[in-house]
Amino acid sequence: MKKHTIKGCLFLTAFFLFSFSIIENPTGIDESSMDKKVNPGANFYLYANGTWLTNNPVPASETKWSNFNLVTERNNEVLRQLLENAAANVKAPIGSNIQKVGTFYRLFMDTLKRDAQGIKPFVATYQKINDIKTKEELISNLAELHEIGIRGFFGFYVSQDLKNSTSYICYLSQSGLGLPDRDYYTKTDKRSDDIRNAYKKHIQESSKLFGVIDSNFASEVYAIENELAIHSMTRTERRNQEKQYNKYSFTELNQKYPHLKFDNYFKANKMASPDSIIVGQPEFFAALNRMIDSLPLAQLKQYVLWNAFNTSMGYLGSAYEKKNFDFYGTVLSGAKEQKPMWKRGISAANSIVGELLGQLFVEKVFSPDSKKQVNDMVDLIVEAFKVRINQLEWMSAETKKMALIKLASFNRKFGYPDVWTDYKNLEIKPDSYLENYFRAASFSHKEMISKLGKPIDRTKWSMLPQTVNAYYSPTLNEIVFPAAIMQAPFFDPKADIAVNFGSIGAVIGHELTHGFDDQGSKYGADGNLKSWWTNEDRIQFEKRTQKLVEQYNGYKMLDSIPINGALTLGENIADFGGLTIAYEALKMYKAKNAMPVINGFTPEQRFFIGFAQVWKNNARPETIRQLIMTDPHSPGEYRVIGTLSNMPSFFEAFGVQKGQKMFKSAEERVVIW
To answer: Is 511 annotated as catalytic?
Structure first.
């Protein structure tokens, strides 16, 4: 998705008015994961996780292995049972959730049928592209392809207006690359050269599976992608929403990019021409406009065909699916083998009938008691954030006042949506896996464009309840915690509260801090992209965040690949701020409640171990390289080391001294929130 960044809460005055379940697990710490031979001041990540890292290599079918995978595996067993039960219920009423989920899963698992069909489900789409006679038709066809989930040239979506969060508006964004990021096309190291060569080979070999015999097919397609990449913004540049908010009237849009024929595009989308539209990357669209004008129609059609092939391969028979995996799974990410069919079926179901499956999922796993306990923790963490803001020495009273107003305006969502999407108009038929993907994509597309002119739907979620994650929405100013993450090791209602503060508490604080990171801090309490800082305070803030950029630039993975401190800045601010606020909440709780030493660990030590153990993970070298280039999060090891090395409370808890690797002097430390 490239909608607006989703990264975390409503201010309530409830304070120390909650109780937690009787502790059955005395610490919540997994001591078997720890390597106590490592000095905490040398490498706290290895101290907390070293034995686990040694004993848990990445499984052959995976590209990385972490707590997120472990919780997902647990959830997958529930989802598998739900899917198999739905598939077995062949008498479910047509149009019911069970019928739609069951029909979909049966078709996915029926590899014999998919293999026998070959490219038959794709033939109509293939023919429609081949029949294009003019560039005007190309643009109209592109709109229809976008509707059914086939990528190409650029992205189009409808979302909240960043500067008027009470209304929806149309957005155009750069897109159209088959590799994960523009840097894969522009970097000149040997690894990048090897990937590009493998990708071109993949294009050529894949096209043969669809009956293409043109020996220049791959080179013609790649030439277009390479040109698009050259004119694309980098991921670091795209973190700046202000630079991507370029508002044009529809007349201006057509004047600037006449060869893109947006009249045709919107007409094919069955939409009236919008009054205005936001163009994310004007230089990209200027280059695309020139390409549409100058390149021959035949080459442009080849590029569109490749996007249709590339999108569809994972939804066809075994040969197509495996070819897709061999490049994207193995070459790019390092996986040694495909996941079992049932696991791939869960991923497919989540992407196509995910919310329908989610409704069945929460009935099985969601605990109202867990929701209450996490909600109570949020109350205290919000109060702790308020304390931290009031104590800031570098921020003026004027900006503090606005920060507190924003904090008090946070909304929160836990578990699952109060209002589910109405899927009565989504048909899932027993014809083919690919055609059901097209129908589901079309349903979502039509639902999206129907938002124009309507009030903002504040009940919608941007994440499924079965997703092990959480996010902050800057335009809605809300934090969202799906049901799937509200379980151990992120949250255990039976565990020691100090560990819960270090794990789910730090995650809550992380999402809250996203409202005040380098980009979230540019949005007001009403969700609009606008400044609420004094100039002096913004300068002070940016000096401190630049220090964090430089700190993370100094960390390297695989001994040679530096972390991009600018790309990961928002997440690093959120990690640091989140843990700082959660620790403040722990202190506030401890002031009112007895917290003894347990198994030799003080509450503070349990807090920091709980945090470090959340981020334990192993990953393949190929995956590490890909994530360093594309992921705005730092690797788990440095989410721990980078954050704790700025916290004197950590030094005190474990006796970390000057001269140890984890120690930073007062002058070196970053202080933000």
So the answer is: yes
65 to 56, 335, 388, 638: CA distances (angstroms): 8, 12, 35, 16
pTM of the complete model beyond 0.90 = yes
Q: Which entry of 137, 355, 571, 575 is annotated as an active-site residue?
A: 575
Angle between helices 341-365 and 97-109 (to 10 degrees): 160
How many angstroms separate the CA atoms of 654 and 452, rounded? 55
Q: Contact, 307 vs 315, CB < 8 A?
A: no
Q: What is the pLDDT of residues 394-449, one digit of tens each?
A: 999 999 999 999 999 999 999 999 999 999 999 999 999 999 999 999 999 999 99
- Six-digit token string for 299: 């080459």
Bridge partners (DSSP) of residue 154 are 174
Q: Cα–Cα–Cα angle for 185, 189, 190, nearest 5°?
A: 105
Cβ neighbors of 475 (< 8 A, separation 6 or more) are 4, 159, 160, 162, 165, 523, 527, 528
* pLDDT of 8: 39
Q: CA 242: distance to chain centroid?
A: 21
Active-site position among 137, 435, 478, 511? 511
CATH fold, domain 130-315, is: Neutral endopeptidase; domain 2 (1.10.1380)
List, for residues 516-530, the tens digit of each pLDDT value: 999 999 999 999 999
User: Chain centroid to CA 559: how far?
Assistant: 27
The stretch 312-322 carries a mean pLDDT of: 96
